[in-house]
Amino acid sequence: MHREAHRAANGGPLAVQELPLSPAADAAPLCASHLNRAPELDRFKLATANKLAGLRCPVHRQAPRLRFDGASLREVTISLSGCCPMLMALANRAIAAH
Fold first, then answer.
1. CA-to-CA distance for 7 and 85, rounded, in angstroms?
2. What is the pLDDT of residues 70-84, one digit of tens each?
3. Structural contact between residues 51 and 94, judged by C-beta atoms closer than 8 angstroms
4. How far apart are CA 42 and CA 82, in angstroms?
5. pTM
6. Model confidence over 24-71: pLDDT tens digits?
7. 37-68 as b/e, with b when 16 or more CB fall inside 10 Å?
8. Is-contact 66 46, C-beta < 8 A?
9. How many C-beta atoms surround the C-beta of residue 1 within 10 A?
10. CA dihedral defined by 6, 7, 12, 16, rounded to 10 degrees?
11. Strand 14-19 relative to strand 2-7: parallel, antiparallel, unpaired?
12. 8 A C-beta contact, residue 60 and residue 83
C-alpha cells in the first residue's frame, strides 16, 4: 500500500487515501486522469504532500493548502497557501527539508 494525499474539496486539510501498490486485475481504475500522469509526477506529489502531513499552524490550527498543476515534472507548478505568514514559513521549511 502507498499513501496518496488529496486536498479536501472545501480547500481544507489534506486527506490521505490508502491505495494498493498493485491493483487487482478486476479493480476499476481510480480515474482517467490518474492513468495519464507520469509515475514520477505522482511520486513527487506524494513526497511533497507527505512533508506537510500533520503540519498545523500553532496559532490557528489550520493545515497548509497544497495544489499541483501540470501533467509532467517539467510542467508542474506548486501553489502553497495558508492562514498566516507563520504557517507559510513552517510549510516552506518542511518542503525544503530533505
1. 20
2. 999 999 999 999 999
3. yes
4. 23
5. 0.59
6. 444 444 454 555 557 999 999 999 999 999 999 999 999 999 999 999
7. eeeebeebbbebbebbeebbbeeeeebbbbee
8. no
9. 7
10. 10
11. antiparallel
12. yes
